[in-house]
């Protein structure tokens, strides 16, 4: 497991190479609750529809610096690796625990008033449009599993896929660590 | 639905709880439930449910459809996991009610809101009764 510090967010990457990997144990519910609960008082509301609109209008150009997308950097969030079957929305059983940990965190009283955005990212190998589409369907699959299997209220869950439009390191868009899932606290449930 | 599931798979759940070594509490975390499912059903999921996502009961339905070929340990674990998720949810939903009297006594003047009340109850160990204390444990909120 590697921990990278961003400006004011703690990013956690959990590598689940195989089912039952001991590394999976290192991500704890307490870490998630504390990370996602660090809400700044002046945090502005995130408009998921605007994010989708900006993404659609800027495909292939990168989105990290766009007005709505750049706002996300200031929100409580973390990154996690969730593995899927090839070209599929099927979450590998080895990643079920990670979903369960996220569910534990989202059911905690400190986070119950908030809604969350699941952002799916791919690396830049293969067709860009296909990557974008697959990342969207995978992000949706994660939100769906949280909202059904793990009983998180569906009105607290949003998802979007950005393909390879937001690489970890723009100089290395094909690196494997670009394949990741971002979970952000996007503000109070109305 | 919760009750029906609990009755149906109560014995399975006990086995699940003993297996995970958390027999002293009545519920297990969503993470532990998910881990059990992956451990006992992972191979069957990969074999019979290729391409299916976990959500919306798809894996559950798929395993049920292939029950004749699915390992018995997976079948019983699946039922136990669903029951334990529902029990954790029920425990979390019951905390407010079970702890209402203790909260009224121990947390007067505390800013309203679930998180603040919970923080107060967790500190007020001398005032909070055994039932409320157990409810917080079962909810996984310690």
What does this structure look like?
Chain B: This is Cysteine rich repeat protein. Chain B: It comes from Mesorhizobium helmanticense. Chain B: InterPro entries: GLG1. The complex is a heterodimer of chains A (190) and B (142). In chain A, 28% of the residues lie in helices and 18% in strands. With 190 residues, chain A is α+β, with helices and mostly antiparallel strands. In chain A, α1 (29-36) packs across α4. Chain B is mostly helical and 142 residues long. Chain B folds into two domains: 1-93, no CATH class; 99-142, no CATH class. Chain B is built from seven helices and no strands. Chain B has helices spanning 2-20, 30-48, 58-65, 72-98, 100-106, 114-123, 130-139. Residues 1-25 of chain B have low confidence and may be disordered. Chain A binds chain B through residues 19-20, 29, 85, 88-91, 93-94, 96-97, 99-101, 103-104, 107-110, 112-113, 141, 144-151, and chain B through 29-35, 37-39, 41-42, 45-46, 49-57, 85-86, 88-89, 92, 113-115, 117-118, 140-141.
Please give a quick description of this structure.
The complex is a heterodimer of chains A (190) and B (142). With 190 residues, chain A is α+β, with helices and mostly antiparallel strands.
Topology:
The complex is a heterodimer of chains A (190) and B (142).
Chain A: E1 2-5, E2 10-13, H1 29-36, H2 48-57, H3 67-71, E3 77-80, H4 96-106, E4 114-121, H5 128-147, E5 157-161, E6 180-188
Parallel strand pairs in A: 4-5
Antiparallel strand pairs in A: 1-2, 3-6, 4-6
Chain B: H1 2-20, H2 30-48, H3 58-65, H4 72-98, H5 100-106, H6 114-123, H7 130-139
Organism (chain B): Mesorhizobium helmanticense
Protein name (chain B): Cysteine rich repeat protein
InterPro entries (chain B): GLG1 (IPR039728)
């Amino acid at each position: 497991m590697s921990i990278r510090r961003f400006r004011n967010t703690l990013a956690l990457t959990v590598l689940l190479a195989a089912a039952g990997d001991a590394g999976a144990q290192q991500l704890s519910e307490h870490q998630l609750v504390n990370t996602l609960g660090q809400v700044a008082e002046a945090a502005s509301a995130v408009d998921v529809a605007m994010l989708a609109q900006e993404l659609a209008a800027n495909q292939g150009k990168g989105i990290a610096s766009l007005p709505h997308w750049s706002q996300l950097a200031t929100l409580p969030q973390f990154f996690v690796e969730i593995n899927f079957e090839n070209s599929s929305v099927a979450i590998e059983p080895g990643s079920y625990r990670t979903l369960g940990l996220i569910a534990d965190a989202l059911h905690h009283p400190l986070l119950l008033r908030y809604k969350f955005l699941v952002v799916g990212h791919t690396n830049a190998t293969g067709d860009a449009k296909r990557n974008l589409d697959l990342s969207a369907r995978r992000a949706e699959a994660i939100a769906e599993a949280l909202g059904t299997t793990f009983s998180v209220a569906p009105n607290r869950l949003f998802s979007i896929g950005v393909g390879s439009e937001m690489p970890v390191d723009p100089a290395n868009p094909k690196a494997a660590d670009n394949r990741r899932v971002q979970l952000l606290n996007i503000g109070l449930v109305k | 639905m919760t009750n029906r599931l609990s009755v149906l798979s109560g014995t399975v759940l006990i086995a699940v709880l003993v297996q995970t070594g958390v027999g002293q509490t009545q519920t297990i975390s969503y993470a532990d439930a998910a881990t059990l499912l992956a451990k006992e059903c992972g191979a069957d999921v990969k074999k019979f449910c290729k391409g299916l996502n976990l959500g919306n009961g798809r894996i559950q339905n798929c395993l049920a459809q292939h029950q004749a070929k699915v390992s018995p340990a997976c079948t019983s674990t699946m039922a136990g996991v669903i029951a334990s998720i529902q029990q954790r949810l029920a425990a979390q939903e019951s905390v407010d009610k079970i702890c209402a009297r203790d909260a009224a006594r121990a947390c007067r003047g505390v800013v309203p809101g679930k998180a603040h009340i919970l923080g107060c109850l967790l500190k007020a160990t001398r005032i909070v009764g055994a039932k409320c204390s157990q409810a917080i444990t079962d909810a996984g909120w310690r």
